[in-house]
Amino acid sequence: MNYKSTLAAAAVILAATSGAVSPAMAAGKEKCYGIAAAGQNDCGNLAGTHSCAGQSSVDNDPGEWKLVAKGSCSNLGGMLKAEAKQRYQEQQEGA
User: Fold this and answer.
1) Which of 5, 12, 32, 78 is the most buried (most CB within 10 A)?
2) Which domain holds residue 80?
3) Is residue 71 part of a domain?
4) Short name of one Pfam family for this protein (predicted)?
5) Domain count, the chain
6) In a domain, 49, yes or no
7) Residues near 39 by beta carbon (within 8 Å), at least 6 away in sequence
8) SS3 per residue for 33-47
9) Cβ pair 65, 32 in contact under 8 A
């Protein structure tokens, strides 16, 4: 296997295991903000400080999210995106 083939194979493996959420996995689910434990978020945050799963540094950060079953977010103590954005903007204005 040459260098380009090895690099291409590595890129495919990385993409497949990166924690990206496929549309099939997301069916019947919604993003729930403020419930992810540190290192347990599903993807990028509202602040734009990272774009990958597992990079949250604080438990229950209102800008971090996890996929949950539709309709279960509020029962878990979380927020949907509109509420999370509002809370994030309020925090930024108060800082």
Assistant:
1) 32
2) 21-94
3) yes
4) DUF2282
5) 1
6) yes
7) 54, 55, 56, 57
8) ECCCCCCCCCCCCCC
9) yes
DSSP annotation of 80? -
The helix/strand/coil state of 10 is: helix
Q: Which residues pair with 65 in a beta bridge?
A: 33
Q: Read off the pLDDT of residues 17-75 as tens digits, 9 standing for 90 and up.
A: 444 556 656 689 999 999 999 999 999 999 899 999 999 999 999 999 999 999 999 99
Q: Work out the number of other CB atoms within 10 angstroms of the CB of residue 45.
A: 22
How many CA atoms are closer than 13 Å to the CA of 77, on its beta-carbon side?
Answer: 8
Identity of the residue numbered 38:
A
Provide the 10 A C-beta neighbour count for residue 34.
21
Amino acid (1-letter code) at residue 51 = S
